């Protein structure tokens, strides 16, 4: 799973270069999660997931508070969660998640981004079967053996553990996301370098330099769309054939 972690790091680094965009997307995601239940992360687990993820991206408290206050104030903006699937160059696959208040706007924009950047839209299910929804938690300050012992003592299951430099990454089933964090928190871990519910590819493809450049343009075009929240893919961004 090492390469998959590299892809997550790459996506985080890319988004960190566009702080205003990522903050706006988090504001929308926090608002929607808060509106779907109580605007309290202790009673709204979906909201808690979003807030924990926002923390790893250093989203300012002011933006989080503004989104929560908007939800508490009874704002009636309605957003629909959508998923699009498609293909890029040389066997690359993408999953695009969106939050939109205008489906008639979002679908054509996503399709246009694919078509103008060497890709094509697929039908529902044409790509997602090649990805697994996964909880990914990264931390520093402990070894993989220590983390494994902590999780075993707390009776928490993990799919896999990876130790890379000073970071330990835990891969787990989505329903174990909070259990992993709580077990590690009780063992003294106060911060996580990554806290994601993500879609990881079962296998990755390595693109030529030319195809990789085209693929990066496609991902950038999709992520630049206002309604798009996240883009998942199966490309090894560090490799080159």
Task: Tell me the Rg in angstroms.
Answer: 18 Å
Largest sheet: number of strands, sense, barrel closure: 4 strands, antiparallel
Helix tally?
8
CATH fourth-tier homologous superfamily of the largest domain: YebC, transcriptional regulation domain
Note poorly predicted spans: none
CATH topology of the largest domain: Alpha-Beta Plaits
Specify the structural class.
alpha+beta
Task: Please state the overall shape, judged from the principal axes of the Cα atoms.
Answer: globular
Series of secondary-structure elements, N-terminal to C-terminal? HHHHEEHEEHEEHEHE
Oligomer: single chain
Subcellular location: Cytoplasm
Protein name: Probable transcriptional regulatory protein ACFSUC_13725
GO molecular function: DNA binding
Family: Belongs to the TACO1 family. YeeN subfamily.
Describe this structure in words.
This protein is of the alpha+beta class and 241 residues long. It has three domains: 2-72, Arc Repressor Mutant, subunit A (Orthogonal Bundle), CATH 1.10.10; 80-129 and 204-233, YebC, transcriptional regulation domain (Alpha-Beta Plaits, 2-Layer Sandwich), CATH 3.30.70.980; 131-201, YebC, transcriptional regulation domain (Alpha-Beta Plaits, 2-Layer Sandwich). It is built from eight helices and eight strands. The strands form two sheets. It has a four-stranded antiparallel beta sheet. The protein is globular and about 50 Å long. InterPro entries: Integrase-like_N (IPR017856), TACO1_YebC-like_2nd/3rd_dom (IPR048300), TACO1_YebC_N (IPR049083), Transcrip_reg_TACO1-like (IPR002876), Transcrip_reg_TACO1-like_dom3 (IPR026564), Transcrip_reg_TACO1_YeeN (IPR026562), YebC-like (IPR029072). Residues 3-74 form the TACO1/YebC-like N-terminal domain. Keywords: Cytoplasm, DNA-binding, Transcription, Transcription regulation.
């Amino acid at each position: 799973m090492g390469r998959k972690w590299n892809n997550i790091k790459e996506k985080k680094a890319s988004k960190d270069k566009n702080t205003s965009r990522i903050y706006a997307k988090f504001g929308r995601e926090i608002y929607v999660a808060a509106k779907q239940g109580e605007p309290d992360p202790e009673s709204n687990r979906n909201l808690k997931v979003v807030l924990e993820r926002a923390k790893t991206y250093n989203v300012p408290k002011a933006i989080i508070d503004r989104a929560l206050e908007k939800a508490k104030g009874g704002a009636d903006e309605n957003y629909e969660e959508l998923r699009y699937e498609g293909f890029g160059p040389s066997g690359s696959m993408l999953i695009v998640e969106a939050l939109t208040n205008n489906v008639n706007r979002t679908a054509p924009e996503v399709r246009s981004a694919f078509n103008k950047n060497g890709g094509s839209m697929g039908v529902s299910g044409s790509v997602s079967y090649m990805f697994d929804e996964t909880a990914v938690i990264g931390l520093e300050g402990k070894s993989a053996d220590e983390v494994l012992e902590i999780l075993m003592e707390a009776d928490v299951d993990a799919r896999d553990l990876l130790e890379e430099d000073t970071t330990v990454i835990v891969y787990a089933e989505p329903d174990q996301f909070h259990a992993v964090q709580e077990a590690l928190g009780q063992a003294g871990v106060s911060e996580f370098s990554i806290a994601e519910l993500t879609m990881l590819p079962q296998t990755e493809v390595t693109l030529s330099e030319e195809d990789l450049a085209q693929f990066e343009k496609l991902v950038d075009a999709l992520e630049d769309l206002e309604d798009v929240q996240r883009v998942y893919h199966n490309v090894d961004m560090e490799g080159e054939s």
